[in-house]
Design a protein that fits this description.
The protein is of the alpha/beta class. Strands 1, 2, 3, 4, 5, 6 and 7 form a 7-stranded mixed beta sheet that branches. It is globular, with a radius of gyration of 20 Å. Helix 8 packs across helix 9 (212-218) and helix 11 packs antiparallel against helix 12. The protein contains 12 helices and 7 strands. Residues 1-5 have low confidence and may be disordered.
Length: 287
């Protein structure tokens, strides 16, 4: 279908934390391990007016496979197998994802955006409803523009099971094989992925440059807010889930949410999601 494909940019995830919330709680440093994150999340969960309703949760969760793949791998699990079939119905995957589900259910310090009327992790963080979130580089300009008074910092995602981890999302421009203007399309792609075009696009801060020369010019590896995002690419889990990503992702998201809400055990939810996804894949391959 596509005649040409050229790298555009990439994004990773990092820990974003509210500096004022940390100061108020007497916390000096961001967590470096997941156990530390769970402990600090409880400390940062506050009911300010003692009305029985939490005003600030410790940690905001995005319960979606694109955000959680590194947690599955931390214990030796995989999102998909070598043939592109869903593989997250394993005990290893359940061990990793339990680090989200258990604190959410039993500690009351983890929160999803929908729980507090927010539309995204970045928004709930900017609104002060979560003191920590794990978000991508796109959150930096959003927070700076939408919540200019918010003092925040970033750090690398805390290690899980003694393993460093985050996600990396790669993006490419493509040219349709049936394009009637291939020369012009290639000229545009060449410019956008060249030094000048890539610098122009990635200097906005929404994405990170794939060209080393552009990265060196922008110095994001020295940027206080972006250095953690750049560092993460060295150990990140790529967001690549085979030829049928919708089946793999949607089945997971639906069943994992039910586990988060306590409607079924986590391992059962993951097994059910895997069965549903692979049934859809087999049907698609047979058609």
């Amino acid at each position: 279908m596509f005649a040409k494909r050229q790298s555009k940019d990439y994004s990773t995830l990092a820990l974003f934390y509210n500096q004022q919330a940390f100061t108020d709680a007497g916390i000096q440093q961001p967590p470096s391990t997941w156990d530390e994150l769970i402990t600090l999340a409880k400390q940062l969960t506050i009911d300010r007016n003692q009305d029985g309703r939490i005003d600030q949760y410790g940690f905001g969760v995005m319960a979606e496979l694109p955000r959680l793949g590194y947690m599955i791998r931390a214990y030796g699990g995989e999102m998909v197998d070598a043939n592109g079939y869903a593989a997250y119905g394993s005990e290893a995957a359940a061990q990793g994802l339990a680090q989200i589900v258990n604190p959410y259910q039993s500690q009351g310090s983890f929160v999803q955006p929908a729980d507090v009327g927010s539309s995204s992790g970045s928004e709930q963080f900017g609104q002060g409803k979560a003191a920590m979130v794990i978000e991508g580089n796109w959150a930096i300009p959003f927070l700076q523009d939408t919540f200019p008074d918010l003092a925040f910092a970033t750090a690398e995602v805390p290690t899980l099971n003694q393993q460093p981890g985050t996600m990396v999302y790669t993006v490419a421009y493509v040219m349709n094989r049936q394009s009637q203007h291939k020369a012009e399309a290639w000229q545009l792609i060449a410019y956008l992925t060249g030094k000048q075009g890539m610098k122009s696009w990635t200097s906005s801060g929404f994405a990170l440059p794939t060209r080393r020369s552009v990265a060196a010019q922008l110095q994001y590896d020295r940027d206080p807010l972006r250095s953690a995002l750049v560092a993460g690419v060295n150990y990140a889990t790529p967001w690549q889930i085979g030829s049928y990503p919708s089946a793999v992702m949607n089945s997971f998201n639906n069943q994992f949410l039910s586990a988060m809400l306590g409607q079924q055990p986590l391992r059962q939810a993951l097994e059910q999601a895997q069965q549903e996804a692979n049934a859809q894949i087999r049907a698609a391959e047979a058609s």
